[in-house]
């Protein structure tokens, strides 16, 4: 199982590196090249999401004793994915701003500060949401582990009581 997870990890690393490189190229391209690059990045982001889902499925199949390490890795991969999506949004916004400015002949300097402020606030909200979601996931995992421990203790108690009755 962990070998599948590790192969997914390698695929994810290669894919995120490609996505990062392409996101950096988006603002420098023009016209159809830019549209094609945006479409390619969207496809690759979808592939990365699917890889994350596969990795999550693999983590669920790992025994609880060694699941913690893989869960931590998954959290960092999800954060990386969120960062890539935010970077891509920024590059697309820059792209749409350029198109809007070309069409309207507007330089956009007056609203640029407002837009940057809104982007910062949106990013801050997204980070907070991810933290809340991660906290919720940890709480759910902790509850599951607690339930498993209670079940084990219950079984142990039954064994001890049976042994005591035999004696």
Automatic annotation (TrEMBL):
GO terms for cellular component: cytosol; endoplasmic reticulum membrane; ER to Golgi transport vesicle membrane; Golgi membrane; late endosome membrane; SNARE complex. It is found in: Endomembrane system; Golgi apparatus membrane. The keyword Cytoplasm does not apply. GO terms for biological process: Golgi to vacuole transport; intra-Golgi vesicle-mediated transport; intracellular protein transport; macroautophagy; retrograde transport, endosome to Golgi; vesicle fusion with Golgi apparatus. GO terms for molecular function: SNAP receptor activity; SNARE binding. The keyword Transport applies. Residues 1-91 form the Vesicle transport v-SNARE N-terminal domain. It comes from the Eukaryota. Pfam families: V-SNARE, V-SNARE_C. Keywords: Coiled coil, Golgi apparatus, Membrane, Protein transport, Transmembrane, Transmembrane helix, Transport. It is a single-pass type IV membrane protein; Single-pass membrane protein. Residues 31-61 form a coiled coil. Belongs to the VTI1 family. Interacts with distinct SNARE complexes that contain either STX5 or STX6. Interacts with NAPA and, to a lesser extent, with NAPG. Identified in a complex containing STX6, STX12, VAMP4 and VTI1A. This is Vesicle transport through interaction with t-SNAREs homolog 1A. It comes from Chordeiles acutipennis (Lesser nighthawk). The lineage of its organism: Eukaryota, Metazoa, Chordata, Craniata, Vertebrata.
